[in-house]
Each structure stands twice: as C-alpha cells, then as structure tokens.
C-alpha cells in the first residue's frame, strides 16, 4: 500500500462536526499515538448502511500515512459525494482533480507512486493531452503489462539508464553494442518495456536494439514528458532526474504506442525527401542574400552555389520519382493522391514520406496530425481566437502550395473559400481551412481506395 513520507494530520473540512467526523478524528489520534499497530476497526452506522468496511491497516511507519485511511476522513467528503477540496500538500503529490467521486479518488490514490525525489505541490500544472501519432508507432501497450521498465535518457555520447522496479541507474556509451549488452542482461527472466525520448536521431541505437532483442519500445513525445515532469512538481532537470521521470512516465501512462522500424523503402523515401527539403531551404537563404550584394565576387559565389543546389534538387526529384514508380504500394497511393485537384507528384511524395498513417485515420486525426486543427482558447465568458499548432510541418508546407493551386483550379474549393470570405474570415484563415479540407480528402481517398471525383475547372 502506498505511503507518503512526512505525512501530517489533514485539516478537517466538511462534516468535521458530525458524529462520523468526531469518531474518525478519534481513530486518527489513536493511529498516531501507536502508529506501528494502529488498526482501524471503528465503523460508523452510516458506513455500515453504505456497506463500507474499514481498512485493515492505517500506518506502517511513524512518519507514514496510508492513503486508504485518508479516504475515511471528512476532508474527502462534500456535497453530493464529490471531491471539492484538497488535502494538505504533505499527503498527495499534486492531488486529484476537482469533481472526482470518492471511488475515483480511491483508485487515483492507490495508483500513485510516491517517492522522495518528487517534491509535493499543492496545485500542480496538469499535463496537456498530446496524442502520440508517431510515424513508426503500432498497437498500444497497456498499462497493466508494464511492471519492468528500462528508461533511457539520450545524449550524443552517453545514455543514462534508469530501471524499475529496482530503481537503479547506470550510464553507458551511446553505441549499439553497449545498448545490446545491457538489454540482453536485463531481459534474463523478464520482458521489460523500453522507453526513450525523440532526440533528433541519437535514440536510434536504443530503438533498433530493443526491436532486435524483441522488447516493446516507445519513443516519447518531448513536450508530453516535460508536462508530465511539471505535473509531478519536478523543477530540476538533469540526466538522472529525466531518466527516472521517463520511467515513471512509462509506468503511469496508458495507450503508449509501440515503435516499429519503418520499411526500407519508406526510410529511403523519407531520407531523399528530407535532403530535398534541406536543399530547398538553403536555396531560399542564398537567394535572400542575393538581394543585397555588395561585392561582385560574393554575388558570383552565391549564384554558383544556388545553381549547384538546384541541380542537386533536380537529381533528387528524379530519384524520388524512380523510387515511387518502382514500389507498387507507393505507385498505387501516389496515383490516388494525385487524383485530387491541387496535389502533384511532389506533394504526394511528401505525404508518402512523412505521413505513412494517411488512410487509416479519422477526419479529426488527419487534421490534427498535420497541425491543421484549430484549438479552442476559451475560459468562461472569454472566447479566445482559435489557433493551429503542432503537427508535421513538412506535410503542412506541401499542403500550403497544394491549397493555393486548388483554390485557383477547383470550383468546389472556390465556392468553399467564397462562403468563408462572406463570413468575414481573413485570407490566411481561408487558406488554412482549404489545407485542412485537402488533408481530410487525401485521407478519405486512401481509405476508400477510390480516386477523387474531379470537377472540371470553370
């Protein structure tokens, strides 16, 4: 049973003057007078009518307080059997959110993992709901299976490894042989769950070795883990603290999607497309420098560099087209995607490279995963402006150009844009709405396997 070190007597709230409250306060005094052998055997008449039984044990140490005992106190009661107050900050790390029933509070407290490394806060920040739509995630790995966890805090040269339930840490080099040796040593007689954060590619040894050994692995979203640390009340940030936080994140989170290595064709297409995007960005940078030339030699160098990178982009476009044509799955999907007005081979290649989930999502998921879903910013009477955020910017930038083309050639999109403008929507909002509609259409086309119904331009 979970205990909280340094627990003190809670301030009694609603119902403290009732007979039930007075009886329970007496039991609380008895428990702290003799904490080693305190047994809660007193049950009031109201508790008997509700079928409630007393917990067998209240305290296990002079400084500890069992969470099941806290539920018997009027502090956890209020009108309508709802939780409306908070205990003192020594009792619960963070505390349950308001509006929970007593049964929900009991399940909440029973599942909390209290440790001395986590400071208690009275009103913590709640983590944001971030969906883990990773490019290489597969089926969910349920919470009940995660009893043995290996968390990796990734850096360029080393890995800080924290394991549960033994609560031990070790630092190893960030190399494939070192990770493989550690995982094989940890898998003797058990099947641990591996977790690490996305770290710009430096986590590849952890994920590949975990799949090679046959262990379930999850690549966590950095924003989601940082909000989880804030929820726990962690203000310090070191490799050791982050490794333990990742282990707790894996133990407490549900519906973590398992990482699976991409197919070789998908990995090759993504690498070629990413290199093309990098070159296109560098060309824009050099062209901006050409607007203010001061020395002829510098101007000639910039033009020479732009010509060289443009030739590289042409060569990459040829390789991408050849790869799409040589792969049956890519060829079929590309034909379906390009049937939508405004979507060309380059946008289709970007969707195939960066959005392999397309065709298996709902309308809302298709918009959210690209970062085109407007999020509300409302509070009571305040109606904030909806904004898009997150998502995969590579696909979003390709859909922007596709939306401009569709607005110029597709009569249905032109009518849709006209309706939005009549309602007073700005031009950028209209373009964003068309991008969102294109993402939903592309997902539906791949899901049904039927080309889009083209409308002849007027």
UniProtKB/TrEMBL annotation:
One of its GO terms (molecular function) is transposase activity. Keywords: Coiled coil. It holds the Pfam family Transposase_20. Residues 31-42 have a biased composition (Polar residues). Residues 336-416 form the Transposase IS116/IS110/IS902 C-terminal domain. InterPro entries: Transp_IS110-like_N, Transpos_IS110, Transposase_20. It comes from the Bacteria. Residues 269-326 form a coiled coil. Residues 171-291 form the Transposase IS110-like N-terminal domain. This is IS110 family transposase. It comes from Paracoccus aurantiacus. The lineage of its organism: Bacteria, Pseudomonadati, Pseudomonadota, Alphaproteobacteria, Rhodobacterales.
